[in-house]
Amino acid sequence: MTDRFARASLVALLVALGLTVPAPASAVTTTATAATSCYGGAVTVHYGDVRDFGPYRTTSRCTDINMRVTGGDADYVVACVKFEKTGVCNRWTKVGWSWTTIATDVLDGTRFTVPNGVDLEGSSATIQIAF
């Protein structure tokens, strides 16, 4: 009982001082593992090779479809997700050098393509798509 009281007192003191206690390693590992498994399955494509990237089929690795620029001289690309079932783009999204969600809450096994364009005519881009 004394040990528990001492720990509780220490935690209360730390909170009163505005200090935080780091999350347990398992919580941090779980978040990192989820991100790694989603982005770890990303495909790499090059702007100019095709008009639309794909077709692809979503997996259980990601809940969303994510995209980023990883090379080339383009500052950004614009892209949308065209789902096979509807044949229309969801919305055009500006995608830069960090991961950007281009479609959310997509069911596993959904077929789609990614129409795209670069910021300036003649620019090049290497792109990763995680799904």
Secondary-structure blueprint of this entry?
Elements: H1 2-16, H2 25-40, E1 43-46, E2 52-57, E3 65-72, E4 77-79, E5 82-83, E6 93-95, E7 100-103, E8 111-118, E9 125-130
Task: Tell me what you see in this structure.
The protein has 131 residues and is α+β, with helices and mostly antiparallel strands. The protein is 24% helix and 34% strand. The protein is built from two helices and nine strands, in the order ααβββββββββ. The protein has helices at residues 2-16, 25-40, and strands at residues 43-46, 52-57, 65-72, 77-79, 82-83, 93-95, 100-103, 111-118, 125-130. The strands form two sheets. Strands 2, 4, 5, 6 and 8 form a five-stranded antiparallel β-sheet that branches. It has a four-stranded antiparallel β-sheet with strand order 1-9-3-7, covered by helices on one side. The longest helix has 16 residues, at 25-40. The termini are far apart. The model is unreliable at 19-31 (pLDDT under 50).
Q: What are the defining features of this structure?
A:
single chain, 131 residues, alpha+beta, 5-stranded antiparallel beta sheet, 4-stranded antiparallel beta sheet, 24% helix, globular
Radius of gyration: 21 Å
Q: Which structural class matches the secondary elements?
A: alpha+beta
Number of helical elements: 2
Q: Strand-residue fraction?
A: 25-35%
What separation lies between the terminal Cα atoms? Answer: 50 Å
- The amount of helix comes to 10-25%
Question: Low-confidence parts, pLDDT < 50 over ≥5 residues?
Answer: 19-31
Quaternary organisation = single chain
**Integer average pLDDT:** 81
Which series of helices and strands comes N to C? HHEEEEEEEEE
